[in-house]
Structure formats: structure tokens, C-alpha cells
Specification:
The protein folds into 2 domains: 89 residues, Glutaredoxin; 132 residues, Glutathione S-transferase Yfyf (Class Pi), Chain A, domain 2, CATH 1.20.1050.10. It is built from 10 helices and 4 strands, in the order E-H-E-H-E-E-H-H-H-H-H-H-H-H. Helix 1 packs parallel to helix 3, helix 4 packs parallel to helix 6 and helix 6 crosses helix 10. The longest helix has 26 residues. The structure holds glutathione. Glutathione binds next to loops.
Length: 235
């Protein structure tokens, strides 16, 4: 029998959203608990995650209140590790396919997302990365997308889709709202450039995963737009 699972998250955190997406797609029961990452409770750092980051999962142990975590639950940090853990907990969810080749493809996609898409995207939003690196990342990801299947790998939602969808949602925010620390107009320019036939496969994939109920349920578009406008305000 599965044990209690508490997800410590922040509603605007893309990394937290990855974990929530996987939990929802697996139909998994969980308790979500919001952590104010700008003013972290002392107990979160001392009892849940010494690094103080969300997402973090507390799995097992007694069914305690999230703000009174038990030392006997296992604490799991890092969004991609959490995705793998959830796929292991729910082997019939399809979050990881059964056959070794497809599993390797999903894991390669997760790795590529971190290196080629996630990092360049937030570098660009924070004003320390380049526009070209984001476009190169889009091209790299597009090259990994399978033919015909609706999802990143094959015809089933996997942790590959869960890991990239929060970033696709934020990519669309910066192209629509031009909000971020990059030069004025570069977000809109990116949006225009992505409409080119060259990126059609990537955009079709993005549209498809952004339409999923799990994405809509976990994405506070207005909150993220405001956050990008204020936290990454141009000075
Ligand atoms: N590599 C980590 C990144 C997690 C992360 O940076 N989380 C941010 C929120 S988006 C956080 O908790 N920041 C608080 C802090 O760094 O003190 C993951 O994939 O889980």
C-alpha cells in the first residue's frame, strides 16, 4: 500500500509544477503545501530540505500536518528526481514507459530539457542569457520530438512532458507579455520567430501539452506574468 505523500511547493515555481503535473497525471493522492520561498519557515529548512528549495516531497511516516513534518518520512528534493520517484511509485501510470528503449528516450529528453531548454530560458528571462541560446534550445528539443505521437516520447504522457510543460507555459508568457529582464521587444520577437514553419513541430507539441487539464489546473498565468514583470523588472 502507498504511503502518505506531501508535496512542498510554490504556486509560481516551474519546478514545483513539474511534480504537481506528474501527481495529477498519475491520479495520485497528495497533500500540497505552499512554502513562501522568499520568507521560508525555519522548520522547512531544518526538517524538510536543508537547501530550502521547492519542490520537496515528504513520503511515508505518520500522517502529520505538513507544517509539523515527521523525521520518519523520506524527504526527496530536485524536480527531476521527484519525477522519477513518482514514475516508480505509479508504474501503471505510464509516466515512464515499460520498454527500455522508450525509457531511455524519456530520460534523455528530461536531461536535454534541463541543459538545452530550462537553463537557457531562465537565463534569458533573468537578463543574463542570450536570445540565440533559447532558439537553439527550441531547435534541440524539436529534434527530439517523435514523429506522429502526441507527446514528447510516443503516444502517452510521460515525465518528459511533465518536465518541459511548465517551461513551455512560461515561454508563451514572455512572448505574449514581453516581460523579463531582456531588452524590450525581444520577447515579442521570439514569439514572432517561433511562428515560422521551421518551428511548427515544436509549437504544435507545445499547444497540445498546454491544453491539458493538468497544466491548466496548475498554472497561474496571471501570477507568473506579474511575477516576471516585477521580479525581473528592467531597471
Ligand atoms: N534544480 C531544482 C531547482 C528548484 C528551485 O530553484 N526552486 C526555487 C523555486 S522556483 C526555490 O525553491 N527557491 C528558493 C531558494 O533558492 O531559496 C529543481 O529542479 O527542483
Amino acid at each position: 500500500m502507498l504511503e502518505q505523500l506531501t508535496l512542498y511547493l510554490h504556486k509560481l515555481s516551474p519546478y514545483s509544477q513539474k511534480a504537481e503535473l506528474a501527481l495529477i497525471e498519475a491520479n495520485a493522492p497528495y497533500k500540497g503545501y505552499q512554502i513562501d520561498v522568499f520568507n521560508k519557515p525555519e522548520w522547512f529548512v531544518s526538517k524538510v530540505n536543508p537547501v530550502g528549495k521547492v519542490p520537496t516531497v515528504a513520503y511515508g511516516g505518520p500522517n502529520v500536518a505538513p507544517d509539523d513534518p515527521s523525521p520518519s518520512s523520506t524527504k526527496i528534493a530536485e524536480s527531476n528526481v521527484i519525477l522519477e520517484f513518482l514514475a516508480d511509485l505509479y508504474p501503471d501510470s505510464g509516466l515512464l514507459p515499460k520498454d527500455p528503449v522508450s525509457r531511455a528516450k524519456v530520460r534523455s529528453f528530461v536531461d536535454a530539457n534541463t541543459k538545452h531548454f530550462e537553463d537557457p530560458l531562465y537565463g534569458f528571462i533573468a537578463g543574463r542569457g542570450s536570445y540565440e541560446d533559447v532558439l537553439n534550445g527550441v531547435e534541440f528539443i524539436q529534434g527530439l520530438l517523435g514523429e506522429g505521437g502526441d507527446f514528447a516520447v510516443g503516444d502517452h504522457y510521460t515525465i518528459a512532458d511533465a518536465c518541459i510543460s511548465p517551461h513551455l507555459a512560461r515561454l508563451m508568457v514572455i512572448t505574449e507579455a514581453d516581460s523579463g529582464k531582456f531588452a524590450v521587444g525581444m520577447g515579442s520577437k521570439l514569439g514572432e520567430e517561433l511562428k515560422a514553419p521551421k518551428f511548427a513541430k515544436f509549437m504544435k507539441y507545445a499547444d497540445r501539452v498546454l491544453e491539458r487539464p493538468s497544466l491548466k489546473q496548475t498554472f497561474d498565468k496571471e501570477g507568473v506574468t506579474t511575477f516576471f514583470k516585477t521580479f525581473y523588472a528592467r531597471t
